[in-house]
Amino acid sequence: MIKSFQFYFDFASPYSFLAHKQIRKIEKENSIQMKYMPIFLGGLFNLAGIKANADIPIKAKYMIKDCKLWAEKYNIVFKFNNYFPIKTLNLMRGVIVAEKKNFIKIFIDKVFDAIWKDGINLNDDKIVEKFLKNLDLDPQVFIMESANVEIKDELKKRTSEAYNLGIFGAPTFVVNSKVFWGQDRLDFALNEAKK
Fold first, then answer.
1. CB-based contact 145:97 (threshold 8 Å)
2. How far, in Å, CA of 4 to CA of 26, rounded?
3. What is the pLDDT of residues 151-162, one digit of tens each?
4. Domain 6-193 sits in CATH 3.50.80.10
5. How is the chain split into domains, by residue range?
6. Which residue spans within the chain are E strands per DSSP?
7. Which residues contact 52 (CB under 8 A, 6 or more apart)?
8. pLDDT tens digits, residue range 16-35?
9. What sign for the dihedral angle of Cα 161, 86, 94, 106?
10. pTM (two decimals)
11. What is the mean pLDDT of residues 165-185?
């Protein structure tokens, strides 16, 4: 039997998308719900003194090929977003709003798919508004709620807490107080979750 564990993610990370797709499968097969932990990757990188892959051309180029290999391995429909890097600060704040209003699962699924399956440009405010309308949300209200100081502070707090746990990137899994970084470490996290 596998117990639930924490999944730290940011929509900006294609590897988080690949992990997310695997996690949804694991949840279904084991009748469990993982604890999705939204963090802001840019803030985490600043705390850790790390540069994003997107800022290192040779790594960014490699990452595109690598993600496609992993997607093929796990039979995941994946399209590297042409608008990468996606600015996800407001989207990650939106996860916290969705969490408070009890539609977190659908919100996470739809945003991940929009970016990494459908290749939508969620850097464009007009496209974001249309996307939110398609989720039956009032864009102005949702954007205003996401900009609330409490929501902003909550995302900062969660990002700082992640850093204090020893997390420096996404996706990261925390099981039995052990940290596993990278979607290719999911099997290690699952083995720990069986203990």
1. yes
2. 10
3. 999 999 999 999
4. no
5. 6-193
6. 6-9, 35-38, 172-175, 178-181
7. 41, 42, 45, 85
8. 999 999 999 999 999 999 99
9. negative
10. 0.95
11. 96
